[in-house]
Amino acid sequence: MSTTASLPTTTLGAGGPLIGTQGLGCMGMSEFYGESDPAESWATLERALELGVTLFDTADVYGAGHNEEFLSEFVRAHRDDLLIATKFGIVRKADDPAFRGFDNSPGYIRASVDASLRRLGVDAIDLYYMHRRDPLVPIEDTVGVMAELVAAGKVRALGLSEVTGDELRAAHAVHPIAAVQSEWSLFSRDVERTAVPAAAELGVTFVPYSPLGRGFLTGAFQSAGELDQSDFRRFQPRFTGENAAHNAELLAPLAAIGEAHGISRAQVALAWVHARAAVHDLAVVPIPGTRKRSRLAENVAAATTRLSAEELATLEPIAGQVAGTRYADMTFTSAGRE
Description:
Layout: E1 9-11, E2 18-20, E3 24-25, H1 38-50, E4 55-57, H2 66-77, E5 83-88, E6 90-93, E7 96-102, H3 106-120, E8 127-130, H4 139-151, E9 158-161, H5 165-174, E10 179-183, H6 195-202, E11 205-209, H7 241-249, H8 252-261, H9 265-280, H10 293-302, H11 309-315, H12 318-321
Parallel strand pairs: 3-4, 4-5, 5-8, 8-9, 9-10, 10-11
Antiparallel strand pairs: 1-2, 6-7
Helix pairs in contact: 1-10, 3-4, 4-5, 5-6, 8-9, 9-10
């Protein structure tokens, strides 16, 4: 992996390759956050690599395969300089945009990896995640099939998303897990109960998604009503009605700390996530999603921003005061299995 001095590196899993300590979530380049500018998104990908970002995150469900196709040319052009991560396990319906189901069956996994390889235009996926767990399928069975993909050379490392500590241990006993991806931010800390301690114990890299609270922590919006009609955040409880008004008031410490450092609220929020690595003694590689080069540079700078013990203490109570759940249907997460 080639990186620049602007972003430190860490290992992906125990004994894995070196990666930049901050990745890039590419979901919004295809769907979910309103209209996107493909040219600016492409420029953002190129700039990310220049700044030392080497982990690029997508999934087969983002834009119903469009995101993988969009990334294909970029990935192939820089194949030796980056790791591409994608996922399987969430099922959608073309005639029902709101539908989300799960499928961890062997046939589905095998078909999904082949489809992702074809869309990405690569011979092997660097990091292949189970996007969501189907509770009707033993996780040992799911990881057993995923291990077959490694043996076949289609996948280089395995990851899991939204799992508990016990599920991670059970999976790791079948095949080494390189990374766990779950929501982790100043607004979402439930993973610290069991998943984070298990990852630290096993040498698994933790990849926080939505480390900026889906943009809310940056102050970019204060309620879902400000967002585009196609933006799925309009349906997340934390960003609507009284919940949004309450949660916006929790951002005052971020503003104060940012002003003291001469940095943005986004950088404060990301610096807090990066600080979790030392707190929990594990590799932490957040994947904030941006489609703009200006925001990308700001995010990368946060990886080397250090907050004082007093500042971290000021931020500590925020998560416990947040109103509203992450999703309207929390069965979409590991929270109910903790």
